[in-house]
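User: Before I run my own analysis I want an independent prediction to cross-check against. Here's the chain; please return only the structure tokens and, at the end, one sentence I can use as a sanity check.
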Amino acid sequence: MATIDVIKEVLNSNLDIDPENVTPESTLESLDIDSLDMVELVCDIEEKLDVEFGEPEGLATIGDMVDYIDNL
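Assistant: Structure tokens:
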């Protein structure tokens, strides 16, 4: 499964965000993802993709997040 699809799945299951509304250009702000949501999101992504996310900074869009994860 592609990284963006995992992110869409996690956003849908955790925050009830419609996957159709999630694109690489979507900002975390436009999806109403706050810092607490981000912590939950990171934990679930780490678990699903078996990666160690670390302490990412400067992630403003879903595309930024995908690029960050794919380069781990």
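Sanity check: The chain has a mean pLDDT of 94.
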